[in-house]
Amino acid sequence: MDLSSQFVTYGGLVLAVLGLIYAQVTYWNIRSLPRGNDTQRKLGVTIYNGAMSFIKQEYRYIVIFVVTVGALLFYFLGMQTAICYFAGAALSMTCGWAGMTSACIANSRTAEAANTSGQGSALTTAFKGGSVMGFSVASLGILGVSGAFTIYFVLNGVNDMNLASFATNIGGFAMGASSVALFARVGGGIYTKAADVGADLVGKVEAGIPEDDPRNPATIADNVGDNVGDVAGMGADLFESYVGSVIATIVIASGLGMATNQTFGDVFISNNFDYCRDYSLLYWNKSCRYFKGF
C-alpha cells in the first residue's frame, strides 16, 4: 500500500477518533451547565424519559428488520456484505441516539442560559448541543468507511480485484444506514406530526389557549416528538446521506481507477474531502463563541 493510500486509511481512523473524543467532551461540558429551577428540571426529565421510551421501542422493531435483511444479504451476497450492512445500521442508530440524548439534556440548560445570561449564551449552549450530533455523524461516518477499508485490505491484500470486490461490499454499509434512516425519519416524523397537530387542536380549538402554552399538557408530547423526529430521525437521515454520498463516490471511482491504473490513494481521494469537512465542523463550532456577548 503506497503512502497516499496509508494516509487515506489511517488518517481517517485517527481523525474519526479525535472527532468522537471532541463530541464526548462537548457532551460532558453541556451536562456540567446549570439546569435551572425545579420546574425546569422536572420538565426536562419528563421530556427526556418520553423521548427515550419512544426511541427504545422504535429501535426494537428496527433491529428485527435489520437482522432479517442482514440474514438475506448473508445468504445471497456473502458474509462481508452482511457485516458492512450491520455496521452501517448500528452506526446510524448510534448517531440518532447520541444526537437525541444531547438535545434532551441541552433543552433546560439552554432555557436557563437564556434566563440568566441572555440570548448569546443560550445560542452557544444550543449550538454545542447540536454539535454533538454533527461531530458524531461526521466522525462515525469516516470511522465506518475507513475502518471497513482498513479491515478489508488487511485481510485480503491490495489488488485491482479486491478493489472491485470492496466497492461491491461497502454498498451494504450504505444500505444499512438507509434502512435505519427510513424507519427513524418516517416513524419519528409521524409521531412528531401527530403530537404537534393533537396539541394544537386541543389547545387552540377546544381550550382556546395559544400554541405551546405551558397550561397544555400535550405540549410535553409535542416536545418529545421534536426530539425523536427532528433530532434522532434527522441524525440517522444525515448519516445515511453522508455515507451514501461517500460510498457512491468510492464505487464510481473504483471503476475509473481500475480502468486508468490509479493508486488507492487517488481512488479514495473523496475521503480526504471528508477529513476537511470534519475540520470545518470544529471551526464553526468554535466560531459560535463570538455570539456569546450578544
Count the DSSP helices: 9
Average pLDDT over all residues: 82
* SSE-based structural type: mainly alpha
Radius of gyration: 22 Å
Low-confidence stretches: none
Strand content: under 5%
Between the first and last Cα atoms, what is the distance in angstroms? 52 Å
Number of DSSP-assigned strands: 0
Helix content: over 70%
**What order do the SSEs take from the amino end to the carboxyl end, as H and E?**
HHHHHHHHH
Q: What form results from the Cα inertia axes?
A: globular
Describe the largest sheet.
none
How many structural domains can be distinguished in the coordinates?
1
Description:
Helix 1 runs antiparallel to helix 4 (119-156), helix 1 packs parallel to helix 9 and helix 2 (38-77) packs antiparallel against helix 3 (79-116). The protein has one domain. It is mostly helical and 294 residues long. The protein is built from 9 helices and no strands. The chain is globular. The model has no long low-confidence stretch (mean pLDDT 82).
Which descriptors apply to this entry?
single chain; mainly alpha; 294 residues; globular
Short description:
The chain has 294 residues and is mostly helical. The chain contains nine helices and no strands.
Layout: helices, strands, pairs:
Blueprint: H1 3-31, H2 38-77, H3 79-116, H4 119-156, H5 160-169, H6 171-207, H7 218-260, H8 264-267, H9 270-287
Helix pairs in contact: 1-4, 1-9, 2-3, 2-6, 2-7, 3-4, 3-6, 3-7, 4-7, 4-9, 5-7, 6-7
